[in-house]
Amino acid sequence: MKETQKHKILVMRLSSLGDIILLSPVFKNIKAKWPDAYITLLVKPQFAQALSGHPDIDNIMVFKGFTGTVCAIRAARFTHLLDLHSTLRTRLLALFSGVANKARYNKHSLQRRLHVKFKLPSPALEKHTLEKYLEALKIWDIPVKYTTPKLNDWVFRPADIDRKEVENICIFQTSFIGDSVLTTPLVQKTAALFPKAKITVVTRPQTAEIFQHLKEVSEIIIDDKRGLGKITGVLNTAKAIRQSRADVILVPHRSFRSALIAKLSGVKVRIGFTNSEGRFFYTKTVPFSWMIHDAERNLYLLRGIVNENFKSADLNMQNAGPNAEDNAAKMLADAGLESQVLAGIHPGSVWPTKCWPYENYAKLITRLEKELGVISVIVGGDKDIDLGEQVSRISDAHPVNLAGKTTLSELMALMKRFKLFVTNDSGPMHIAAAFGVPVLAIFGPTTKELGFFPYGEGNRVIEVKGLPCRPCALHGGKKCPEGHFKCMRDITVDEVFSTAKEMLNK
């Protein structure tokens, strides 16, 4: 690099790997403005290897104590310094850096403390951290063209493994239905990269059907976490994995229990996420970012064993099986719906706060039928039977209630017959998206930034903007912690119907 470099930029972020992953659009915007820019990223030593492959980062500087780092910064003669950590330490580094042209992101520390201690709201807290990073570029008149991180931005060294020697790969996913659906692209991509390898999936009894119909899956190991199985199943599942003779285990599930089972299984190459609770049980961890959809994020695990660039995940699932197809067709025929335009409706959720009020679903169903001629089919599991009957009973229309009346495979077969699927943030939402059905999702306690929004073009999310209490939890909860439930109650039937009409017209 020439000493006359006009834009020699130091970016500082001495934080967790997840926070650093969000920086990718910052680098891209700098390069778009100044193609000649030479960007150095200052990080903690443990993250240097994982971050070294980004196409827009020219150099990684490792923090080695305050004095040593100041000397290294001064010796490098940077023209610009961007502080994206904004702590006392990074402010002092900037002060003694000798760099004249500085910019710093505003983390609104005071507002955050007041919000935590006194629950005082602030418009500043409604902005995502990434938005604040990008705002820091304004002082250098850098326009924001890139706003989200991409799957292939971060490339890191895979585990030292010979693909030809991999004969069996285990994929461990024992979470909910939606999480399992979003793991299917990982299964399919793994099979494509290792066509001769046997693929074993570890999953729960409730989600086994999702993987049974994937042609890429050779074996399914059931991990039953109900009752004592949550404890005794640790050793039993680890033993089953060991007996499958897996060479590699990929664990998208981030629980301590999952990591412990992987460790006890004795599999030599164990790969999980950097923020997994049992990450120290893995032989390799890969970066995790909330700003990437869960289906794409799971593909990151493959970066632990291969140096590949991935395209956006293709969520088209395999067929649901001939019996399920026939049963689904019979259900619709018995209800006289073979030639009708159908909308799937899922008013339930495992988490009560994720549910839009059932009376609103009833009003929506009525308007879909009377104003658009669209017949609604209510779906759900056994726990949704009463809810489905309640919605059906109070609606002034003729919906068909199939909640609790389908297997998971039959639900998958039904999905392909819907022109629209209206749902809460739930497992069936991901199944609909996987089959390419336009999804209208209603989000309350959760937000899109958590990475579980319906994947694919044309899908929509309706949510209340500007509520400082959102998200209140990763999955929602049994009741609103604030007591007002405004995140769902403030979403009107008119808004949902209008969006549904627009999607159906397309």
Topology:
Elements: E1 8-12, H1 17-21, H2 24-33, E2 38-43, H3 48-51, E3 59-62, H4 66-76, E4 80-83, H5 88-95, E5 101-104, H6 109-118, H7 129-135, E6 168-172, H8 177-181, H9 184-193, E7 198-203, H10 208-212, E8 219-222, H11 229-243, E9 248-250, H12 256-264, E10 269-273, E11 284-286, H13 294-299, H14 322-334, E12 342-346, H15 358-372, E13 375-378, H16 385-394, E14 400-401, H17 408-415, E15 420-424, H18 427-434, E16 439-442, E17 460-462, H19 486-489, H20 493-505
Helix pairs in contact: 11-12, 14-17, 15-16, 15-20
Polypeptide structure, described:
By secondary structure, the protein is of the alpha/beta class. The protein folds into three domains: 8-149, Rossmann fold, CATH 3.40.50.2000; 166-304, Glycogen Phosphorylase B (Rossmann fold, 3-Layer(aba) Sandwich), CATH 3.40.50.2000; 322-505, Glycogen Phosphorylase B (Rossmann fold, 3-Layer(aba) Sandwich). It has helices at residues 17-21, 24-33, 48-51, 66-76, 88-95, 109-118, 129-135, 177-181, 184-193, 208-212, 229-243, 256-264, 294-299, 322-334, 358-372, 385-394, 408-415, 427-434, 486-489, 493-505; strands at residues 8-12, 38-43, 59-62, 80-83, 101-104, 168-172, 198-203, 219-222, 248-250, 269-273, 284-286, 342-346, 375-378, 400-401, 420-424, 439-442, 460-462. The chain has a six-stranded parallel β-sheet with strand order 8-7-6-9-10-11, with helices on both faces. Strands 14-13-12-15-16-17 form a six-stranded parallel β-sheet, with helices on both faces. Strand 7 (198-203), helix 10 (208-212) and strand 8 (219-222) form a beta-alpha-beta unit. The chain is globular and about 80 Å long.
